[in-house]
Write a structure and sequence with these properties.
Chains A, B, C, D: Pfam families: MCD, MCD_N. Chains A, B, C, D: This is Malonyl-CoA decarboxylase. Chains A, B, C, D: It comes from Neptunomonas antarctica. Chains A, B, C, D: InterPro entries: Malonyl_CoA_deC (IPR038917), Malonyl_CoA_deC_C (IPR007956), Malonyl_CoA_deC_C_sf (IPR042303), MCD_N (IPR035372), MCD_N_sf (IPR038351). The structure is a homotetramer. In chain A, the strands form three sheets. In chain A, strands 1-2-3-4-5 form a five-stranded mixed beta sheet, covered by helices on one side. In chain A, strands 6-7 form a two-stranded antiparallel sheet. The first copy, chain A, has a two-stranded antiparallel ribbon with strand order 8-9. In chain A, helix 1 (about 5-20) packs across helix 4 and helix 2 (about 30-40) packs antiparallel against helix 4 (about 45-60). Chain A is built from 21 helices and nine strands. In chain A, a hairpin with a 2-residue loop joins strand 6 and strand 7. The longest helix of chain A has 21 residues, at about 340-360. With about 425 residues, chain A is α+β, with helices and mostly antiparallel strands. The first copy, chain A, has helices at about 5-20, 30-40, 40-45, 45-60, 60-75, 80-95, 95-105, 110-115, 125-140, 145-160, 175-185, 195-200, 235-240, 270-285, 300-310, 320-325, 340-360, 370-375, 390-395, 410-420, 430-435, and strands at about 165-170, 205-210, 220-225, 255-260, 290-295, 360, 365, 380-385, 400-405. The radius of gyration of chain A is 26 Å and the shape is globular. The first copy, chain A, folds into three domains: about 5-160, Butyryl-CoA Dehydrogenase, subunit A, domain 3, CATH 1.20.140; about 160-295, Aminopeptidase (3-Layer(aba) Sandwich), CATH 3.40.630; about 300-435, Malonyl-CoA decarboxylase, catalytic domain (Aminopeptidase, 3-Layer(aba) Sandwich), CATH 3.40.630. Chains in contact: A-B, A-C, B-D, C-D. At the A-B interface, helix 1, helix 3, helix 6, helix 7 and helix 10 of A face helix 1, helix 3, helix 6, helix 7 and helix 10 of B.
Chain lengths: ~425, ~425, ~425, ~425
């Protein structure tokens, strides 16, 4: 039996007992419940008190939640005086007692509170939800970042990669999980169950990370198509009836064409880099005949960057002759007009390559998807013309897509060069054409 | 597929790649592997580096391990100067930046190291093993308690009750789990599989806590017998063929007769209080006709205490007349001699009640088992003569056993009075007889 | 590992070996494959030969299949001469040898052929499919019923109730099973996944029988709603958002509102009677507070019967005064017109009660649904006006529905009286009103 | 939920109802229960009546059981007169009706009875048990073979290979299954759990067939050792600590060293031939580097045959000179005496080869193990001196063992030649040495 179910009945039973003794329980504030939970009463019937906090939090409206977060900030922060005293003692003696006392003084009581909330049924879920709210509030209340420091510290520790399980998602997975794929797919929209069934069809794979405390809730998932040769276009990947549907043992390439995070409350607690590499290994093990592992990725920042560069008279990237050509994009149907399309193609592809390779924020690439895969140790392999003619694809990158290639034996070297020196790994072909632009 | 298996192949593959690039890898020291794991290299192929640490640690001998722990103490501790500086800045500004900087300065790099080790296959297992070693070393090297502060802090967070799963253990459980029950049973010795099968027989239950990262490894387990009326003796509990084997729906009482911790490396990270209460709730749910939940527990400290009191001429507990009677215990076979047995019974039972109720360490009872159950909110119900005539039972408590009774509706009240004021809850009968002694 | 997967690889491997030795294998006819399978070659690599039959059958077109069934009829029937000889020997000696010889002579080689086909991967599935084809052919080729005698005999034995597993279907069941519910629902149409999710929502249950050899294929399923009091109308049952959604422990009645068979190839191999009674028992066990178990069922034959009676000038059921009232039904929107509706209600309800109670085919009721539930031992409880205003409901029974009530303690008695003497059990109220018509 | 559990509660509930109506139920005879079960009452509450039969049968003593079997023989056999009539009608008309009528007349009511018993909880188990009893009675009551004709016919159909599941048995399998391996191991005795753990250790495999209706009950299992080169001796196989424990990917040969049937009541319903071939395929799939699949088998009939030949003065196999040598075997410790051992070795090995190849019963080999593996299509590969020095090995075959080799591509050819013409396949080496004797 899963503990959660049991916790439920334990906590329910506990709550009944509490209610009998204290008729005013349901009226108590979230703040009172927290105080009870942290007191030694909490040790005896911890999950009942924790459940009271969970229920009270979930009932709160926006205003009450914000008030609650400020309460956490004001009443559950470490005491500066005490911290300085303990810091001095630590410097003086440097022994176990001083070390423990310093740490106890610095660790905010919020962390213990969060750990105790986690004992309630759905505790972890509530904390992830709570962080989702918190991140929203932080935009206008930046001082709440202090609370997120504690909460995200805890979640990073709990969602440590060693605690995640990788699971394959298939058409015979539980519907309650599958409906979440439809909901969370963030790259190539799914209109419903029929779309989903196609993405789990022949020569298709889907993998997700799960955490034991969020059963039935994928954290992140990746969709994969097994094909022959590097894919250059999205439609045949998301609809297998469009491709020549060869038999699995004739495929040689795994294309990662969509990666979606599912939990807004886990933003910034990165799983993506682990996920891709583990799926590569898993596919290699299961299908040893696969030799290439690559993404087919969007270039979300290209057109925005291009428009900024066009406005910039001194752009180092745009030649004068390009500007006329680019003006053809004003025609709404430019990509359906073969003549225009052929005229803009070399200019757009040249600029897009420059964008991927030269456009930087600090020493790293502007483009967030590029930053992600290059940071993982992949290389830029190839730019593809008209790989995604959906409205979104045209808006972001004039329909272009790029392959990032995962060569496992180079991943570590690429990663180090990228992180330390901003070096961008590319295929020979990409490099050659880039120089010739 | 469980992540561990996959991590294994991922990490193996990573290690192969690393080995090819760096022929000296296998010779590198544990210390070097740790440095690599904490560097940014670790981010690309984290689990490969983590695995190198795990392998190197497991190969180490006692001397190398001790050296390693001192290395952790010296090279991975927070910098006192920096801590003081950050503490002052925090006091001055009290904003997010200062808060984060203070915490970063105080959190020892060991914690990050341990979290990264946890990414390796068997990472959690290795950390539990490492703590087991550490606790051993601490006896002669108390300064290493500083490291245990960090490690136990992390393990407490990871083994948070919200992450544990309660599972029933039955005769159709995997042998690989069952053999651990035989190994870890700490209260009433099992000689092998036949004994185990009896303890999982008719009207018997066994429950254990598991953690998702230690598959197949019980953390703690409790053995339960369903009987009619409060049990007063061990043999019929551990061998159902000895009791009148009534049908399950005629039972009214669940007796918790054995609780064993399994992981030395998790010492002090308490699960027992959760376990008993949850099993009570679970049994109530499954078998609503059960009305009593009680232990039949050893009294491990009684005879040691008694012998100290006997040596103490001024003992407030022992009457002069008792001393003669107690000398009869010098006869090795006293408990088989009905005459002696009857003579010592009232004296021993009287003294044992005093021991349980009056003998204190601080404001809490001397006896560790009493401390545990009373701290959980149970009450002392009844003392039982000759409940355990095994060598161990005679040595610890002259064969006496005690029932601690779990009345869920009183657990919280009892717990609070016990923790705050040292009040010991008892049955009316126990109290009455105690006063009359 | 499930045998089917393995059988697949075994049979594939076997087929490869066979193909190497016999290049003409793929061209061989279904008839040749059957002959091989029955020969002693089949014993060595049985599943390979069986697989050849399965593949060849699935490739066949209608004409080839029909030819194949005639081949089974002509070449695999028992030899009449031999049967007579063995019958005489059996009469003469009546010993084991004669008994075995008689049976061997009478059992058609088709049965052995079918049993061997069953060894192939998907063998059972193929045989069910084959019977589905066969039943279709029988309409125009009644002599093929001889083959169905053998095939259905075998399937009845294999789908013996002792081999079926009852499983609850929930929203977290595999999508591959759920999509079959949408497909096979035969009583109250589901338009897709949203409908299905409602039917598996709060206070709803769904159970199906499965057979180990048809994994993922429900044989029959029943949809249940937990409500307070006997339900009289379909819409709130198939859409829980329409009912007052009380908490589960406030419900007292389980309504079986839809039962659908899934496998056309298993027609006539009845599971429905087992299913309902077992679900009643299962619900009683899980939810002891339920006290009533009833269907809310269509009356598929009522309007057809009524129209026949109307055409019959001498109908013993229709009074002259009724005929005028009934003519109001000519108005397409009669049921939306309150005046008409109220006028026809007493007449239609009276006639429908007579239909259910008096209209017979032989000694059993005309109505197939009545025959099914009364044959299971249920009683007619209540007739409900306007319980199903769907097009189908109006067409069949002018929107009326009937409750059949399962009183487990009366089921056997009712069943016997019904089967032996055609006695129809009813509630007192139904009986009373019936007499007063 | 498994049907069996549910059937239990259904049948229990049914039985309660029956008991209330008919107080004499528990006193009724097995024969009465059978009559009820076959009547139409059985259709309403079938499992309750079936359960009554099961309970009554299990309570019966030997005498009552024998009486019951004679009752089945006398009261449930087909009517010879009717059979002849139907046979004549079938010959005359040859249509569906005549066919069905013939079959109905010939099929004994016992078959329906057995099928209905199968609906009870543990029905299949009871029928297997019943056949176990029946086979015992047949020895002295050969006329009961008639009943076994029906029962084994049914069991063969139900235990059709298509319904079996192959499962790997490992140390983490349920103890309730593992204890049955200890109990049923019939070739190389296991003394208990320690022995079993070794046989499931490194480079060891174990596979069993299960049937869905006998959960937790292996039907047959095979133990496999993965080694390098053909094994010639048992001890290193049953105790992996004795072999050089190479890493799995260095092994090239799977040795099947023990095959045991588990269910006496399924005697003669052969699974062994399927089992070995499927395990070969499964191992090939999982471990593609394995190239040899062979048994290391006992030769149970050799010494018995040899002693008969020695008594036969005209033996065509034993030379005069051999007789003297063979007399050395009179020394109880002959195999420990190197001199004797070397003297008898060539003679015994020569004779044993002749035994395996020439000693026949009909056209097939005398030796039952040879008959089994050669019938499966294996070949005799090699005879091994002193492969099994256990008491049993010495008694059966003077410690010799033989390897039967499974070359999947030859299995079908070998099988056909063996079954049709008694041709025994051997390795070239075996053949060559055989001729040279």
């Amino acid at each position: 039996m899963r503990l959660n179910e049991l916790l439920n009945s334990v906590a329910e039973a506990g709550r009944e007992i509490l209610s009998k003794r204290d008729k005013s329980l349901p009226e108590k504030t979230l703040e009172t419940h927290c105080a009870n939970l942290l007191s030694n009463k909490g040790e005896a019937l911890g999950s009942a008190f924790a459940m009271a906090v969970v229920i009270a939090y979930r009932k709160s409206n926006e205003e009450e939640k914000l008030k609650f977060f400020y309460h956490l900030l004001e009443s559950y922060s470490p005491n500066p005086e005490l911290v300085i005293q303990r810091a001095n003692e630590y410097k003086a003696s440097n022994d176990y007692k001083a070390y423990a006392a310093l740490n106890d003084a610095v660790e905010s009581p919020r962390q213990m509170l969060f750990r105790r909330i986690n004992m309630a049924p759905n505790g972890t879920e509530t904390l992830v939800e709570l962080r989702c709210d918190l991140l929203r509030f932080i935009k206008n209340n930046p001082e709440l970042k202090t609370i997120d420091y504690d909460l995200s510290h805890l979640l990073k520790s709990w969602f440590n990669r060693g605690f995640l399980t990788l699971e394959e998602i298939r058409w015979d997975s539980p519907a309650v999980i599958l409906e979440k794929l439809i909901k969370y797919e963030a790259v190539h929209y799914m209109s419903g169950w029929e779309d989903l069934k196609k993405r789990l069809g022949k020569n298709r794979r889907c993998y997700a990370f799960f955490h034991p405390s969020l059963p039935g809730e994928p954290l992140i998932f990746v969709e994969v198509a097994l094909v022959k040769g590097l894919a250059d276009s999205i439609p045949p990947l998301i609809d297998p009836t469009l491709d020549a549907s060869i038999s699995e043992n004739k495929t040689d390439t795994a294309i990662f064409y969509s990666i979606s995070n599912c939990q807004a409350g886990l933003a910034g607690i990165s799983f993506g880099n682990f996920l891709i590499k583990q799926v590569v290994m898993e596919l290699k093990r299961e299908l040893p005949h696969l030799t290439q592992f690559s993404t087919l990725s969007p270039i979300p920042g290209f057109l925005k960057w291009l428009s900024r560069e066009q406005e910039n008279g001194d752009s180092e990237f745009i030649k004068e002759t390009d500007r006329d050509v680019l003006s053809l994009l004003g025609n709404e149907h430019w990509y359906q007009d073969q003549e225009i399309s052929e005229a803009v193609k070399p200019v757009l592809m040249g600029l897009c390559k420059k964008y991927l390779f030269h456009a930087k924020r600090g020493k790293l690439p502007c483009d967030p998807v590029a930053r992600f895969h290059l940071g993982n140790g992949a290389r830029i392999e190839r730019l593809n013309w008209m790989g995604d003619k959906s409205a979104n694809g045209l808006d972001q990158s004039a329909g272009m897509l790029v392959n990032y290639f995962y060569e496992i034996s180079e991943v570590e070297k690429n990663h180090e060069a990228f992180i330390n020196d901003g070096v961008i790994a590319t295929s020979k072909d990409f490099k050659r054409k880039l120089s010739s632009i």
